[in-house]
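[Discussion] Sanity-checking designs against the backbone

I'm trying to build intuition for which residues belong where. Below is a structure token string of 328 positions. I'd appreciate it if someone posts a full sequence so I can compare it with mine line by line.
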């Protein structure tokens, strides 16, 4: 029999479910997170999908040994509870208890989605070889993982790394967390889309109006408008990159990392974004820091969280002690 691990990455927009061997993710399933009506529904879906994925793989004799789950935070890892989610209406959900009960009590290990993605990139992806690094995901929201001396830094209550919720503009727009002027509220995919909606309301972008037609506006449409020469949309992206550059420069000043790894769907537009972000960072860093921070793109093809979940599942100790699992 083959040892199989269940891996799950729950995001604000998409949820990935997979099975893996020791060193390979062998089957995956994609779901729109918005199609999951409740966290209880998710539990039933996971159990069904693990069985289905194993039956469809080349490892039909596989036995599920443990499950790693990347979940939106903040959360309580020790008790396996999701406190709340900024982009989903879930609160105080005991995901580990519920999933273990459905899976005959095999170990289930959870971690914050950004931490899991950071672990994935540090161990398997673009962060390999850097003992001090920061992972930042820029997608529906913005999250992060801080790795110091090869280990995730979690803080006193497991709440470190909430990079999306550092305040960049004190009197800025409201954030889903309840604060104002957070980096997430200014520079995430959601923020870009909201800025584009304002352009449409004010009829300031003819190109964007043609692109959207009868469709729902997405951040990708705004990037496409930029590629077609739309100045108003280009102004949005310049502003977003300014905020990202400020946020990343702040992280460099505090943590002095060897590398910053940038992931998430928005970074698919890296050819447009990176030069602007790096220029803003250069303005704000000490000269002695300039040129000494590696800015790298995540390299696991949108599956950073799944690879992090695999690492969690493989390295569980008493089903929860994962502090040592990110040694590089």
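Best answer:
Here's mine. Compare freely.
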């Amino acid at each position: 029999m083959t040892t199989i691990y269940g891996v799950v990455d729950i995001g604000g927009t998409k949820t990935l479910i997979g099975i893996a061997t020791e060193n390979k993710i062998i089957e995956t399933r994609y779901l729109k997170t918005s199609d999951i009506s409740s966290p209880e529904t998710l539990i039933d879906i996971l159990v069904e999908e693990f069985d289905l994925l194993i039956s469809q793989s080349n490892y039909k004799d596989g036995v599920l040994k443990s499950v790693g789950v990347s979940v939106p935070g903040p959360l309580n890892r020790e008790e396996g509870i999701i406190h709340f989610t900024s982009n989903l209406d879930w609160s105080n959900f005991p995901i580990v208890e519920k999933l273990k009960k459905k899976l005959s009590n095999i170990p289930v290990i959870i971690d914050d989605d950004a931490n899991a993605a950071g672990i994935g990139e540090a161990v398997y992806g673009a962060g390999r070889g850097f003992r001090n690094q920061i992972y930042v995901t820029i997608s529906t929201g913005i999250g992060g993982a801080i790795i110091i001396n090869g280990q995730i830094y979690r803080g006193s209550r497991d709440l470190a790394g909430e990079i999306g919720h550092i305040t960049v503009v004190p009197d800025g727009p409201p954030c889903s967390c309840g604060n104002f002027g957070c980096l997430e509220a200014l520079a995430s995919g959601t923020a870009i889309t909201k800025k584009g909606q304002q352009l449409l309301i004010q009829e300031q972008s003819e190109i964007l109006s043609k692109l959207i037609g009868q469709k729902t506006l997405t951040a990708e449409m705004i990037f496409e408008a930029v590629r077609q020469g739309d100045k108003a949309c280009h102004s949005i992206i310049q502003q977003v990159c300014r905020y990202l550059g400020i946020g990343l420069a702040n992280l460099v000043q505090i943590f002095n990392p060897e590398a910053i790894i940038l992931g998430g769907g928005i970074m698919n537009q890296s050819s447009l974004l990176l030069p602007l972000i790096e220029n803003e960072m250069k303005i704000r860093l000490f000269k002695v820091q300039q040129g000494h921070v590696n800015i790298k793109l995540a390299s696991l093809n949108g599956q950073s969280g799944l690879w992090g979940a695999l690492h969690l599942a493989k390295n569980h100790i008493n089903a929860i002690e994962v502090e040592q699992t990110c040694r590089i």
